[in-house]
Amino acid sequence: MTPIAAAAIYSGVNILILLFLSFRVVGRRRSAQVSLGTGGDADLEVRVRAHGNASEYIPATMLGLFIAASLGAPLWAVHAIGGVFTFGRVLHGIGLSGNIMAPRALGMVLTWLGMLASGVAVIWLGLS
């Protein structure tokens, strides 16, 4: 497996996470009969935020992961960054959706570590 192929797998998994969270929003919108905004529905608000949060973090980090892989990041580094970030996204989604603070907090820490590593890798490899 090449580093770019590994980055592609993490990107694909994160796209599926976004799709899953999107389906949860649409499903709740239909059952609550809310087409725009959240209509004061607390469950819809949580689902919208979970999807929005993932939409804020996933694209930039996956782009960074692909750039790092393209610039020659070793396979282990791509797996480390992609794995930590993706695990963080899963934990955060579970924690936010179930209002469980521990996985939500750990998920954000892992998300930030993945983002930080992605950003540092791109800068480091870009300067090399």
What's the layout of helices and strands?
Elements: H1 3-32, H2 42-70, H3 75-98, H4 101-127
Helix pairs in contact: 1-2, 1-3, 2-3, 2-4, 3-4
Structure keywords:
single chain, 128 residues, mainly alpha, 4 helices, elongated
Explained architecture:
With 128 residues, the protein is mostly helical. Helix content is 86%, strand content 0%. The protein has four helices and no strands. The chain has helices at residues 3-32, 42-70, 75-98, 101-127. Helix 1 (3-32) runs antiparallel to helix 2 (42-70), helix 1 packs parallel to helix 3 and helix 2 (42-70) packs antiparallel against helix 3 (75-98). The radius of gyration is 16 Å and the shape is elongated.
Query: What structural class do you assign from the helix and strand content?
Result: mainly alpha
User: How much helix is in the residues?
Assistant: over 70%
What is the element string, with H for helices and E for strands? HHHH
Q: Tell me how many strands there are.
A: 0
Task: Please tell me how large the radius of gyration is.
Answer: 16 Å
Q: What is the 3D form? A: elongated
End-to-end gap: 23 Å
Instruction: Please tell me the overall pLDDT.
Output: 94
Concise summary:
This protein is 86% helix and 0% strand. It has helices spanning 3-32, 42-70, 75-98, 101-127. The model has no long low-confidence stretch (mean pLDDT 94).
